[in-house]
Amino acid sequence: MTTAEIVKFVESFGSDNNAASEALLGKLQAKEVTMEELEKAIGVDSEAYPFGYPETDAYVEPSFLVRLAVKKMRAEGDECAFAC
Fold first, then answer.
1. Average pLDDT of 7-12?
2. Distance CA 11, CA 62 (A)
């Protein structure tokens, strides 16, 4: 997916961050997108989301993408994956 496609895809979920997370997890598992592409499109300092997706006025730890990466690792069988 291109950066613009990722941003449009995420924006299609409106404020439902959980649905966006699940949909992106599916795309990661299907190898339709990589974490690097997501970081470029919706990560901190990205053009669309300078503070990271979802847009906030402060950094939130762990970030949306970190939590998504952990979901992916767990889905792939890593029972010890976690974010703090």
1. 97
2. 21
